[in-house]
Structure formats: C-alpha cells, structure tokens
C-alpha cells in the first residue's frame, strides 16, 4: 500500500512540474492560455504572478520527490514526512482554489485529486 501511495505522490509531483512549466515558462503561449482560459492580454498582464506561482508548484513537487527518494533510500520517517508535506500542501492548495474560485473548481479537482489520494493512501498505509 505504501508503494501505491508513493506512486500517487510521484504522479502528483509530475503534474505539478507540468503546471510549473505552463505557469512559469509557457504562460503566454497558446497552449497555456487554452489550459487556463486566459486571453493574450490577460496572460501578458499576469505573467510575473504566474511565473512566481509556477515556482510554488515546482517546490511542492520537489519536496514530494525528495521524500520519495528518501523513502526508497531507507529513510522511512524522513521520506514519509517530506512526501506528506509535499502532497498535503498540494491538496490544501487545491482546496483553497476550490473554495475561493467557483469558476476554477474543475481545475482544483484536477490539481488536487492525485495529491489527496496520495495522502489518504499513505496515511492508511502508515496506520495499518
């Protein structure tokens, strides 16, 4: 069960790296604008904000990734702590987006499902 939780955490981290790419590196491209539903003018006006926000997503992915590596290297406590901190923060951020922006709820569900599943599976695995 722990392996399933770590796989879910790795998938959540990969998704957040992709979000980093879209927000920080490709924000004004047609693809990113289509994903986020922004116009060219909106994307240009919010470029700096998106750049910063993308790095938040990257850092959460890095924390989860280091936790997975630590777990695989035999440091179960450090690995579990970092992995749960990373995916827990991802899930919490998705919840904030879901509650604060009703028009962005579909994005919040997409962004938060994998981390939430990882948290649930890992917590259950540690409890058993």
Automatic annotation (TrEMBL):
Pfam families: DUF1304. Keywords: Membrane, Transmembrane, Transmembrane helix. The keyword Transmembrane helix applies. The keyword Transmembrane applies. InterPro entries: DUF1304. Coiled coil: none annotated. The chain crosses the membrane at residues 56-74, 81-101, 107-127. PANTHER family: BLL0914 PROTEIN (PTHR38446). This is DUF1304 domain-containing protein. It comes from Tessaracoccus lacteus. The lineage of its organism: Bacteria, Bacillati, Actinomycetota, Actinomycetes, Propionibacteriales.
């Amino acid at each position: 069960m722990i392996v399933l939780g770590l796989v879910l955490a790795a998938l959540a981290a990969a998704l957040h790296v992709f979000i980093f790419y879209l927000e920080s590196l490709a924000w004004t491209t047609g693809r990113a604008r289509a994903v986020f539903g922004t116009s060219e003018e909106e994307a240009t006006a919010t470029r700096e904000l998106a750049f910063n926000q993308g790095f938040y997503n990257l850092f959460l992915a890095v924390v989860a990734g280091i936790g997975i590596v630590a777990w695989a290297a035999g440091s179960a406590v450090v690995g579990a702590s970092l992995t749960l901190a990373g995916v827990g923060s991802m899930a919490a951020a998705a919840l904030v987006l879901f509650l604060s922006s009703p028009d962005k709820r579909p994005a919040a569900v997409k962004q938060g499902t994998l981390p939430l599943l990882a948290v649930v599976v890992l917590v259950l695995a540690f409890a058993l």
